[in-house]
Design a protein that fits this description.
With 555 residues, the protein is mainly β. Helix content is 1%, strand content 39%. The two termini are 55 Å apart.
Length: 555
């Protein structure tokens, strides 16, 4: 069929009923259009539209409402294509995310935006190939410019319908969009240079990548539908057929017992057809045991005779061979027809013991484990008997920002709360403030690695603890909230911080409370609450309270 999107009811009927005495929350319809110069059904085979209530995408980013759209090669995405419709959506703030996805689930490109729904509205998002290697914000960019359009970092509020949020247009006419790729044609679409590929100019197993020209079809070898013939480029696994979106069904060895030569794409029956290293026989006795090399029986172990014995080809014997203990000397000392067979010796390194094996008169490498520079991974890397003896602790810094991660500040190890829905870091006379605090990270440890950091909120006794989040705000005294629902998911305490797993390990995080100048600091704690004027760690009837919290660290 031509499309796979449909109207979606965002909330259940029960959720749409107002409480007694309250007016019902009005509903709206959101239509989503996509413009892109990625090749449909080749570079992406699915569009995922996810709608989240609130201006932030929760840590559990699968909790939104999803609409799927199946593109076709003939669809003109430069002109725009309707990919989702959300109906019956209660009015309010939302975050919208579009993802272009391959059959294996790989995310080719992603674009997010924020919007306030107060009526039926259509939103058009541009996902341009020029953003493929761009990570926003870049050095020197406004920190709130976290979206990319036309290779530029812009506000996430940038849409075709709201061009004022998109900055200076990249182009005003197609003539300003220059390409050196013969199979690509340029277009100026809503102030952005997009490029359409003419696949008919490429070979039967190629398509037009508008940045590189004619290139082989993606790793699925052109598999657009299961059961189609395809070619993975290999001869020795037989004829190929598409299965589960990839070229992975094969008829098997075409040589019926003979050796298959991938290089010559032929079936061979000679002794060295299976490749180098296998045994063979050139018919000569006195050059020793033979093996295949370079596709021929061309490698020989040398004279089978030792101890001064003479090799006689006509009788295929060694005259006068005197057996003795085998040594590492390249000779057949024990007259068994093998050179240096079974000759080993013990060896060791600072990390343990091993053996060396003699081959053709030379000792091979020691099998004992070797050491390496110590890193923070819980192991004794340098084999000195101690683990992680470098400093593996991290200091933690955080930022403050407004809805949608806008107006994000620099990083700081101290935060104070002047009132509800406000968190401040040092700066100026009264600090630099935003509604939220978070986006925390662990600074590099001694070996240079770092971690992302998340915090949770919870009730007394660590009850009803939430999942980790990178954004927290205070809705009022003794109420810390993470994203979730219209007003957030709130508890009395925040803390129980933890890091991402790097180098095979992760950390828990604790913070301190302190007064101006980091004075009168409390001990480290994994639980803090705001009493309306100060930040408090557990202690006494009302807690041990100070003006600031921070100086967070891993343990």
């Amino acid at each position: 069929m031509s499309r796979s999107w449909g109207s979606v009811l965002l909330f259940s009927a029960a959720a749409a009923v107002a409480a007694p005495g309250c007016a019902a929350n009005p509903a709206a319809q959101l239509s989503v259009d996509l413009k892109t110069d990625y090749a449909p059904e080749i570079e992406f085979t699915e569009v995922r539209a996810d709608l989240f209530q609130g201006r932030l995408i929760p840590a559990d980013d699968e909790s939104g409402t999803r609409v799927l759209y199946t593109p076709r090669r003939e669809h003109d995405f430069l002109a725009g294509r309707r990919v989702a419709e959300f109906a019956g959506v209660p009015t309010g703030p939302y975050a919208l995310r579009l993802r272009l996805v391959t059959p294996s689930g790989f995310i080719v490109a992603e674009r997010t935006t924020t919007l306030d729904l107060s009526r039926d509205v259509t939103v058009t998002l541009i996902v341009s190939r020029s953003c493929r290697d761009v990570s926003c914000p870049r050095a020197g960019d406004d920190l709130s410019h976290t979206a990319c359009v036309g290779g530029r970092c812009v506000s996430p509020s940038c849409t075709v319908e709201d061009p004022a949020e998109c900055g200076t247009p990249e182009c005003t006419a197609a003539s300003e969009c220059v390409t050196s790729v013969p199979c690509a044609r340029s277009a100026c679409i809503d102030g952005v240079c997009l490029y359409a590929g003419d696949h008919t100019m490429c070979g039967s197993r190629e398509y037009c990548d508008t940045a590189r020209g004619c290139v082989p079809l993606p790793g699925d070898a052109g598999c657009i539908a299961d059961g189609r013939a395809c070619d993975d480029g290999l001869y020795c696994n037989g004829t190929d057929t598409c299965s589960s979106g990839t070229c992975n069904a094969h008829s098997g060895d075409p040589c019926a017992g003979a050796a298959c030569d991938e290089t010559t794409r032929t079936c061979r029956t000679d002794p060295c057809a299976t490749g180098d290293g296998g045994p063979c026989d050139d018919g000569v006795f006195c050059n020793g045991a033979d093996s295949c090399a370079g596709g021929a029986c061309g490698s020989h172990s040398g004279s089978p005779c030792s101890g001064g014995a003479v090799c006689t080809e006509s009788t295929r014997t060694c005259a006068g061979c005197m057996a003795r203990a085998e040594e590492c000397n390249g000779l057949d000392d024990d007259c068994n027809g093998a050179i240096d067979n079974g000759v080993t010796r013990a060896c060791s390194t600072g990390c343990g013991s091993g053996v060396e094996t003699c081959t053709a008169g030379a000792w091979g490498g020691c099998t004992a484990p070797g050491g390496s520079a110590e890193i923070c991974d819980g192991l004794d890397n340098d084999c000195n008997g101690a683990t992680d003896e470098i400093d593996c602790r991290h200091a933690v810094v955080c930022t403050v920002f407004n809805d949608g991660y806008l107006d994000i500040s620099g990083e700081s190890d101290a935060i104070y709360v002047p009132g509800a829905a406000s968190a401040c870091i040092p700066g100026g006379a009264t600090g630099i403030c935003g509604r939220w605090w978070g986006r925390c990270r662990a600074l590099p440890a001694a070996d240079g690695h770092t971690h992302s950091v998340w915090f949770t909120v919870f009730a007394d006794g660590y009850a009803a603890i939430t999942g980790g989040a990178d954004a927290i705000y205070f809705s009022g005294p003794e109420s810390a909230c993470v994203p979730g629902g219209p007003t957030g998911d709130c508890r009395r305490w925040f803390g129980r911080g933890y890091t991402s797993t790097e180098q095979g390990h992760s950390h828990m995080v604790r913070c301190y409370a302190f007064d101006d100048g980091y004075l009168n600091a409390t001990g480290p704690s994994d639980a803090i609450f705001w009493n309306g004027s100060q930040l408090c760690v557990p202690g006494g009837a009302a807690g041990d309270c100070r003006r600031w919290f921070g100086r967070c660290e891993t343990f």
